[in-house]
Amino acid sequence: NIFFIFIFSISIAQVFSEYSYTGSSHAAMAGAITANVSSDDGIFQNPASLSGFENDIIILGQSNVFNQSQLPYRHLGVVYNIPIIGRIGVSYESFSTEYNGTEISSENALSFSKGTYLQKDKNSSFSIGYRIKVLSWEQSASAGSTGDGSDGVAAHQSSTLGLDFGIIGGLRDKYWVGGYLTNINSPVMGGQNLPRKISISLGFNPSDKVQTNLSMERLLGRNDRQVKLGLKYNLNSSISIISGVQSNPNRFGFGFEYELFNRFIFGYSILTHHIMNETHHLEIKIK
Asked: Residue 134: beta bridge partners?
């Protein structure tokens, strides 16, 4: 059955460090990496984006990957100002593969992100950020050919630590350039090195209403790359329209955010796939 082969391939290959579509706005931008220093996107993307973020916020989101209820993905993010340490981002991501109510495999990531300015004046800024991740993977025992588990694969659990690093430079709050590396410490899980990824991003904000991002991503050790372009347009103080495109494979994202009472932000997006079904994302932010 092709579908179950596909599920199995995801369960052993999908890792959060390689997933670029966390949250409704990220998915709507087709995973384009945000390049500015005052965004809560730094919780899940380039941690240097948290350098100028001055609010406390809680983020909750859920999606079924490729619109399959057997592939639930959930995320939680918090940015909070801690005395002495300063403002820090904490996130939790959970992805699992389920069948008939049984969890076949699950992946969890608990992350701590911090961004800080190295230089800042009225014309320019330069910031760095880092993220420490606790990654865990669990696989349930298989039934085997007999169906009773006597000759199946035993249950397995493993965990490791990952480290991400990012930089962002800005000019007059309009022009941005950033670099982002994931798993720079080459973490190993289950005897295999987790993928390392490098992302280069360019941002241009022609006005307070428009934000554009162009990013190029490549897994280290591979020659192929993805190019992603994202656009966010603020229609008014409450509604934002977000869209994006990606190459290799070609994907298209679209979504919106609606802010209520200057405290709650509701987000929705849809992300297409060239073979599988589209993925719908729902998210709420509480400031």
From this structure: 110, 161
pTM comes to: 0.87
Residue 114 CA to residue 105 CA, distance in Å, equals 30
The dihedral over CA atoms of 227, 198, 35, 62, expressed in degrees to the nearest 10, equals 80
10 Å Cβ neighbour count for 148?
9
Contact 103, 140 (CB under 8 A): yes
Contact 140, 155 (CB under 8 A): yes
Q: Read off the pLDDT of residues 68-98 as tens digits, 9 standing for 90 and up.
A: 888 899 999 999 999 888 899 999 999 888 7
How far CA 176 is from CA of 170, 279, 280, in Å, comes to 4, 29, 29
Residue 28 φ/ψ, nearest 5 degrees:
-60, -30
3-state secondary structure of 164: strand
Residue 157 DSSP SS3:
strand
DSSP state of 183: -
Summarize the confidence of residues 140-160 as an average pLDDT.
71
Instruction: Give the integer Cα–Cα distance in Å for 41 and 47.
Output: 8
Contacts 24+ apart (CB under 8 A), 93-98: 93/16, 93/19, 93/22, 93/44, 95/14, 95/16, 95/19, 95/65, 95/71, 96/71, 96/72, 97/7, 97/10, 97/11, 97/70, 97/71, 98/69, 98/70, 98/71, 98/72
CA–CA separation, 230 vs 20, rounded Å? 13
**Cα-to-chain-centroid distance, residue 83:** 27
Distance CA 245, CA 251 (A): 6
Q: Alpha carbon 270 to chain centroid distance?
A: 15
